[in-house]
Design brief:
The complex is a heterodimer of chains A (about 110) and B (about 110).
Chain A lengths: L2 E3 L3 E5 L4 E8 L3 E9 L6 E6 L3 E5 L2 E6 L4 E6 L8 E11 L2 E6 L3 E6 L1
Parallel strand pairs in A: 2-11
Antiparallel strand pairs in A: 1-3, 3-8, 4-5, 4-9, 6-7, 7-8, 9-10, 9-11
Chain B lengths: L3 E4 L2 E4 L5 E7 L5 E7 L5 E7 L6 E2 L6 E5 L5 E5 L8 E8 L8 E2 L3 E5 L1
The chains are: A mainly beta (about 110), B mainly beta (about 110).
């Protein structure tokens, strides 16, 4: 089967650094993506790792290790507006189309 | 550019009623998707369309049908709504490719009583 595991909740303070881990088990793996979703809103794309290593986009970085079936999202200099749910998603190819398989999400609460 | 639009935003149905959720994108994307999101369950793929004229089942297709009307529009139909279909429904679109960066609509909040 296919599965993704990530913590259900994380709490951190403003200005801190937080890491959200994601482990996956899937066939046809192409890469790992991260999406952010604020309460009541739609998911929005944050980052994608197709190769092992670190990808940096401003305050956010994402890491992938294919050999460990593991990735993480690193958020630095946390701000109150970063309070949201974060989903890892495997880009999975079955047949002719690549689809996303989402984890259940990690709810990040940033405290002052 | 409106991105991905969905109608309606909210809907209440009685068990057994039917309805169609509409989705349109103006980004010239090839692929379109329908997801449902339930509390604590993440997003689950219902159906997708890799290109105009094709549709395929996702993880949870039972009780739903879809139509890719043209490149812009992808509709989701509930023929006989059930309380288990109470959920938030998101439409998304993307270019083809490995990254499959998806753009999501604002969602439709559906309650079936």
């Amino acid at each position: 089967g296919q599965s993704l595991e990530q913590p259900s909740e994380v709490t951190a303070v403003e200005g801190a650094i937080v890491q959200i881990n994601c482990t996956y088990q899937t066939s046809g793996f192409y890469g790992l993506s991260w999406y952010q979703q604020h309460d009541g809103g739609a998911p929005t794309f944050l980052s994608y790792n197709g190769l092992d290593g670190l990808e940096e986009t401003g305050r956010f970085s994402s890491f992938l290790s294919r050999s460990d079936s593991y990735g993480y999202l690193l958020l630095q200099e946390l701000q109150m507006k970063d309070s949201a749910s974060y989903f890892c998603a495997v880009v999975n190819y079955g047949g002719s189309q690549g689809n996303l398989i989402f984890g259940k999400g990690t709810k990040l609460s940033v405290k002052p | 550019n409106a991105g991905v639009t969905q109608t309606p935003k909210f809907q209440v149905l009685k068990t057994g009623q039917s309805m169609t959720l509409q989705c349109a994108q103006d980004m010239n994307h090839n692929s379109m998707y329908w997801y449902r999101q339930d509390p604590g369950m993440g997003l689950r793929l219902i159906y997708y369309s890799a290109s105009e004229g094709t549709t395929d089942k996702g993880e949870v297709p039972n009780g739903y049908n879809v139509s890719r009307l043209n490149k812009r529009e992808f509709s989701l139909r509930l023929e006989s709504a059930a309380p288990s279909q109470t959920s938030v429904y998101f439409c998304a679109s993307s270019f083809s490719g490995r990254k499959n960066e998806q753009y999501f609509g604002p969602g439709t909040r559906l309650t079936v009583t």
